[in-house]
Design brief:
With about 450 residues, the chain is α/β, with parallel strands linked by helices. Helix content is about 50%, strand content about 15%.
Length: about 450
């Protein structure tokens, strides 16, 4: 039986990789929802697809020595995990954060396989990064690290091999330093990184894409219940690009955004974050690289909760977790449900624990899993690759329209697939089966 097949694979991974908790969590979430497909089509067991798809094609680990502003040598670890290229070149971001380790990057790379598949664009799954922390570092130090990171990474990437992008800790500044060094070493201006500046090969709407796409996905889910964002109370975690532009789009659609957060705490503005207040947040985060607490200096009526996430603070209709993995635990989920939440759409990667996810589904909350709901970022990266290949630069309206269409299609694909297996509101099952089936069929076609 295929359910026995799933359990056998999970048991083997637990024995081999049990210390990699985030990776085991992501594999468990995917595999447990695939059982109906695996029972219907024995080919996937015959060709050992689960065994093959849960092991990266290769893992590259390297040292990154660099000089800080005092002239001292610092050493960090660099990673690139090229997970699966069955449907296209490896594609996935680079994360610079002290928490980066193999488990986190393997979970992100594994999720990326199915997320990229759902976009319908020809992109495989990969991820990378370093335990380097850009916070508190000067521009010169960030540049020195990025250049030395790329001195090793460049030999493993290419427009038809592996196309990295940004993630936590890797924004336009870092992409610029990385791409500049790649061009210098490789002597080519190929589309080997996405998230580039618009004036040197980037796509319009790329910074906004993940946040906008998350709200577009949530909008489609809400339509199935005959409602939308207008007048709804919205809680958002995070204050990086994803959270900022999810906030902006939710406001544009009439939502009342009440919270944003960072690693130090959460602001709660019961009056609602307006477009004018949104500009304050952008100035704090994008210009000054400050802390979200500074919002209170401009909006004294708001409240600040130190070392607290948004989920326990107030009544809510829509929750958009946009910070980091496992930021919504079972207790948070139960509180959100109690406080009236009808929709959760994940902007971050795997922000809900397995227990929280099951609680949302059991309560009938519309739940948009990250691999579907936050696919707008990598979808627009794919559009950037297309523009680079054609030597074109589309305007903002055209990119946004294409992004919106992709997110509607991802929603419809996930819902239609869930309906095919008798569970029309189970977007987690629908997204996992749809993303997996395309990649698995390609793996079978390509042979062993």
């Amino acid at each position: 039986m295929s359910c026995e097949y799933v359990q056998r694979v999970l048991n083997h991974l637990q024995q081999k990789n049990g210390q990699e908790k985030e990776f085991i969590q992501s594999v468990t979430e995917v595999c447990e929802t695939l059982t109906p497909l695996l029972e219907r089509d024995p080919r996937y067991s015959k060709y050992r697809i689960l065994e093959r798809i849960t092991v990266p094609d290769r893992i590259i680990i390297f040292q990154v020595p660099w000089l800080d502003d005092k002239g001292d040598i610092q050493v960090n670890i660099g990673y690139r995990i090229q997970f699966n290229s069955a449907i296209g070149p490896y594609k996935g971001g680079l994360r610079f954060h002290p928490s980066v380790n193999l488990s986190i990057l393997k979970f992100l790379g594994f999720e990326q396989i199915f997320k990229n598949s759902l976009t319908t664009l020809p992109m495989g799954g990969g991820k990378g990064g370093s335990d380097f922390d850009p916070k508190g570092r000067s521009d010169r130090e960030v540049q020195a690290f990025c250049q030395n990171f790329m001195r090793e990474l460049y030999r493993h990437i290419g427009p038809d091999t592996d196309v990295p992008a940004g993630d936590i800790g890797v924004g336009p500044r870092e992409i610029g330093y990385l791409y500049g060094q790649y061009k210098h070493i490789a002597n080519t201006a190929s589309a080997v990184l996405t998230g580039k500046g618009v004036n040197w090969g980037g796509s319009r709407v790329r910074p906004e894409a993940t946040g906008y796409g998350n709200v577009y996905f949530a909008t489609e889910m809400l339509k199935t219940r005959g409602t939308g964002f207008d007048g709804r109370r919205v809680l958002i975690s995070g204050s990086g690009n994803v959270a900022q532009y999810a906030c902006k789009k939710a406001i544009q659609l009439g939502g009342k955004v009440l919270t944003m957060s960072d690693s130090c705490g959460t602001i709660l503005d019961e009056e609602g974050i307006t477009m004018e207040k949104f500009a304050i947040i952008q100035e704090i985060k994008q210009v000054r690289r400050g802390r979200i607490k500074e919002y209170l200096e401009k909006v004294p009526g708001a409240k600040y909760f130190e070392n607290t996430r948004p989920w326990q603070l107030t009544k809510v209709d829509i929750a958009l977790p946009c910070a980091t993995q496992n930021e919504v635990d079972l207790r948070d989920a139960e509180t959100l449900i109690k406080n009236g939440c009808i929709c959760v759409s994940e902007g971050a990667n795997m922000p809900s624990s397995l227990e929280a996810t099951k609680a949302f589904q059991a309560a009938g909350v519309l739940f948009g899993p990250a691999k579907a709901a936050n696919a707008g970022g990598v979808a627009t990266s794919g559009l950037e690759m297309s523009q680079n290949a054609m030597r074109l630069n589309w305007n903002s309206e055209e990119v946004d329209q294409r992004l919106h269409e992709i997110m509607i299609n991802i929603h419809n694909t996930a819902r239609r697939t869930a309906e095919e297996f008798g569970r029309p509101d189970d977007y987690l099952m629908g997204a996992n089966i749809a993303g997996f089936r395309k990649v698995a069929n390609a793996m079978i076609d390509l042979g062993v």
